[in-house]
Fold each of these.
Amino acid sequence: MRSSIKKIFWLYAFIFLLLIGYLLKLSLYDSHNFVSNPYNPRLSQSNEGIKRGSIYDANGDIIAEDVKQEDGTYKRVYTNAEYYAHVVGYTVKGKAGVESKYNFRLETISNEFLQRLGNLVLGRDIEGNSLVLTIDNRLQEIAGEQLGNQRGSIVAMEPSTGKILAMVSNPTFDSNAVSENWEDLNSDEENSPLLNRATQGLYPPGSVFKIVTAAAALQTDSSLYDFEIDCEGEEQYGHSIIHCYDGRAHGNVKMDSAFAKSCNIYFSDIGLKIGAKNLISMADSFGFNKDIGLALEYSRSSFALTENSEEMEIVETSFGQGKTLVTPLFMAMITSAVANNGMMMQPYVVDYSLTPSGGIRNRTIPEKLNQAISPDLAEQIKGLMEGVVEYGTATNASFSVSGQIDTDNSISGSSATKAAYSGEIKVAGKTGTAENPQGDDHAWFVAFAPADEPKIAVAVLLENAGKGSNAIPAGREIMKEYIQNLAG
């Protein structure tokens, strides 16, 4: 009898501990997701009487702020609204972007007693905490200008931290006019202006995926660097024929020249040599099919190859076609990992919160996602990417810079002179032309610079723009601006 009572006691004790653990997880870990979930009806309700915190760029330029109306209510006003629409979002018809995911911070009142006393005695606004983004307004504007009316996306990152320096998506919308244009924005299925193509758009990677294939090959067998074929521009695999771009014959190529010239036949052969298992392992190391930890809404980049996949699927996957799908942000992360000695960092767009009195709260600490590849392997891939710019498909990606800039950080009030780079900047990059079953090919360009001391990585995706080299100018101009004027 006593034995049965003891068993029942420990069973209930175990269930009770599980319940306590679940409640702790719910309140400490999951609560933020519930607060910022776009389906949370409370997000559509304004906290009356409180001035929502502002949103600043990395230099202290106002991107979003509450402006008091004559009736005492607040209206959210956005600067450079079209360039920031997908990152910052909106606060009408629900919330999106940073406005949604960081809603709790923007409505959190620091020193609430003093603020309410000031409001009661002096009529001062009760104000929530502000946010300082990692995005630099000057770089964001250049990215938006480079994208122009072209559908697609541009992402720029700091490889060593995961800090997002610029992120634009097109078609875009005006965050100041969401309410008036809501019906059109929701019904435009052709352009999908509300979709953040940088984080949610999934595209075949084309030849930029050869970064992953090359890494898989060299990790499997380092001697494959000297593997050589004679490319005649096309090759039959099973019942299908694979072509290099424009049917161009590359002749005798090894790993370095095949990567620089983007030879599909070479990488098809490499893929078959190492097999599906090694490709799957490398894709897993880079984080395909996994969460990336970004606070904004995003789609997982997908890699569908299995160990039982047929030969043709392995061939197509090896040069970036088949069923593989990536977001521009994820390609920027892969590029950044190569630049950062193989370490992939978690991407983030908010640097810290700022109280109305100037206090800094919730500073984001850069976080490692995973060691995608070893530092030695990253150095080899970096060398291959340098060859693309030196003598391959991206020779027009190189640039020179000169001069320096004095900057004043208006957020912290401290002044600093940023280091200047001068002369020719070595760039490491990769172009990609992705076949698109719905229309013309997509153009890709990923790169980082300076190659020997990476400060910035970019990913450019232009929908239906044809060959990958068409995406180079946008990436080049963003890297040039950052290194010449902004990189510290």
Note: Residues 42-46, 405-419 have pLDDT under 50 and may be disordered.
Amino acid sequence: MIVFTTPPHHYKERGIFTQDYITIALPKGKLFGLSTELLKKVGWTAEGLHEKSRKLVITNDAEKLKFIITKTADVPTYVEYGAADIGIIGKDVILESEKDVYELLDLGFGKCHLMMAVPKDKKRPRLEDYSHTRVATKFPHIAEKFFVERGMQMEYIKLNGSIELGPIVGLSESIVDIVETGTTLRENNLEEIVHIMDATARLIANRVSYRLKFDRINNLVNELEKFL
């Protein structure tokens, strides 16, 4: 547990000790609409709160709320450093980012899973047969932990989009990526061979904010649980 007798300067600068407002980091993309709809049910919303807003921070002064709309991968960073008190983000992003945040609640939506896939015509008999090959992924930390636990050495190639392209053009022998329906895998002649982990959206909090703004954040958790 973090214990401060005097607030550190970097938290002061980012406004984490401004007690009046709660700042929420929301991810662009598929989780944004689901997140805002859920928060709206408990009265946590603001005028103009939509993904395509040109405003970087959207405020509800009456309810003392501030919303940050940011790239998915950045949500844990904003929360860890106190630029946001809380955030909503997928479990996969939390694990990959390795940020020091407090996970408060499994929100249940945005369900998907992380898996390893290979070209159908290049499947090998055993998982271990892929050792010492290249794997393309957005999740090198999660992938490395998975393979190391199985005694496998791999070469990790970090990509930010179109992971399926890796094996097609010869960049890698396999991929580790998030899957929802599997349609993209099938369309690119790839087959899932290993299920790595399930992931859903989570409510996370800055550890200091959670202590100093406990009442409001805990009330939010209790209200959200009624709708889950």
Note: The radius of gyration is 20 Å.
Amino acid sequence: MSGTVDPYVDSLVSRYPELEGCRADILAAFGLLSDCYSAGAKLLVVGNGGSAADAEHIVGELMKGFRLPRKLDAAYRRALTEADSELGPILADSLQGALPAIALDGHPALTTAYMNDCEPLLCFAQQVNGYGKPGDVLLAISTSGNSKNVLFAATVARAKGMKVVGLTGEKNSRLSAMADVCIRVPRTETYLIQELHLPVYHCLCLMLEDAFFNGEGNK
């Protein structure tokens, strides 16, 4: 795990020295995410309010190019062209490699139907129940670490054989106790916690992109 990933964490800590204490957990979270993607699995991301916005932000960095161009490999480009001689070359030149990730804060038709018909606090849990598979990872973002709908989702993830990565503030919480890895940034006030969450997940996205797309075409 050293070599290509350590410089990203070194850069993060040089810009945010207070995150030095999170180094080991950031590297451990990267390890779980890297194993997930190497196995062909996916990431589910959940959070409320500002953390929901962070969930969408993370998905945006993983599902398309972040810093690298993420060109498709030759075999896939050829398959696209063979599928349609007119449309395929456009797709081959324009599509980018993706690391599959789904933010669970969207899907308003599903979530409002579930909230109306069933139990509002289980909206995220229902989606983990439907999307989640063994080997997937749930990234659970909660500044307090005690948001009930996030905890319900994490419980379902554990039951389905998924790994859980928590991203919280510095206090011990139910999520930090439940997660396989929990990155607890050293702040206690919500907006200050969120200010440190962004550089942490950017660092994770940079490391994952480097691991899977730093070469000729997709790995």
Note: The CA atoms of residues 10 and 23 lie 9 Å apart.
